[in-house]
Amino acid sequence: MNIKDMRMLGIAIAFFLFTVCLIAYPKDVLEASKSGLAMWSDSVFPSLLPFFIAAELLIAFGIVSFLGVLLEPFMRPLFNVPGCGGFVWAMGLSSGFPSGAKFTVRLRKQKKLTKEEAERLVSFTNSSSPLFICGAIAVGFFQDPALGLLLAACHYGANTLVGIIMRFYRKNAPPSTNTNSKISISAAIHALKKEQDSDERPLGQKLGDAVSTSIHTLLMIGGFIVLFSVLYRILHVTGFIHILSMLPALILSLLQFNQALAFPWLSGFFEITVGSKLVSDLQQTDMLEKAMIVGFILGFSGFSVQAQVASLLADTDIRFAPFFAARWLHGLLAMFLTYILWEPLYVRQAERPVFTGDTAVSFMKTGWQGIEAWFIQYGTLVTISSLLLYIIVIHTTNKRHTSN
């Protein structure tokens, strides 16, 4: 039996045991499924849907081609990707996982990126959103708005460093476009007009396709969130996750960190939210160590997000391996930056805060908490309404195709 056969056998056995656990622990599975579904419907779906639809329309109307020409002199020397990668980078930073992968795949299918450029781009355009870092983690879990500044700076700084390092990945591969060192407005307008002329779909169809494509992707994301919520719960109730945490405990002992971080750190490998919450709950642990572990968790992204990205990349020739390697690099760089920037961005902020007075701090807290409360109150309503709209769009599209 060769290595490939052994691997496939191991995967088959793992899924068999997973199915057995679904039957053996029905109550825990149901609770985990509800928890994952609530997270998706309350927060993930309503927060990502506007970005996804807007991005699809920007691509359809040629705005991305316009920006691609303008950003070429910046993106090519720094990251060795075409200018349209700047749009993907911006969407990934603002909307969070897995926007970067979704739009990288979109541009690759349109032949705006080569395979190598797409692999470079997807490696640094997937990141946590500011809402999640500053709102959910800093304010929601740690009750410390100042920590959000540190985590965000380290997360996005490490993400940028990953992009710069990945520019050397297969650097001799031929580029998709000729390098342009000058910004040309006329060339950008020409690219926009050319893109609009090539897409002959009417406005209504473009809107419908943007909605249906975005919701289809979010349904896939929801499935992975529920799946990994159930997987984590099974690992927890069976006690297997405590066995797995022995390896992180060994690494932490070598780093002279508190070994109480081992279980939360391992949990973060599976799901970012769970791992970060468990880290914040630790009482007798140095704050710097907790911040470094959370920084790694955010950079690594968790297997749940990585599975979402792998699913998106499966429709193309973009390999998952460079993205997976970049996630380890992102996590390690975020830990390092957290250690370096701890004093200037957190300790000094605590001693001489940029936002002084209880009113300013209270405003920062209530601001993020207000956004979170809005999603909790109206998120599910937005999700259900969007799903109804999705059904109407799909029905209309199928009816049009049938009549033709």
What does this structure look like?
This protein has about 400 residues and is an all-alpha fold. It has one domain (about 25-404). Helix content is about 80%, strand content about 0%. It is built from 18 helices and no strands. Helix 6 (about 115-125) packs antiparallel against helix 8 (about 145-165), helix 7 packs antiparallel against helix 8 (about 145-165) and helix 7 (about 130-140) crosses helix 18 (about 355-404). The longest helix has about 45 residues, at about 355-404. The chain is globular, with a radius of gyration of 22 Å. The protein starts with a helix and ends with a helix. This is Sporulation integral membrane protein YlbJ.
Shape: globular
What is the oligomeric state here? single chain
Structural category is mainly alpha
Secondary structure: helix percent: over 70%
Amino-to-carboxy terminus distance: 53 Å
- Kindly state the mean pLDDT as a whole number? 84
Beta content: under 5%
One letter per element, helices H and strands E, the order comes to: HHHHHHHHHHHHHHHHHH
pLDDT below 50 for ≥5 consecutive residues: which ranges?
355-361
Q: Main beta sheet: strand number and arrangement?
A: none
Radius of gyration using CA atoms only: 22 Å
* Count of folded domains: 1
Number of strands: 0
Organism: Alteribacillus persepolensis
InterPro entries: Gate_dom, Spore_IM_YlbJ
Protein name: Sporulation integral membrane protein YlbJ
Keywords: Membrane, Transmembrane, Transmembrane helix
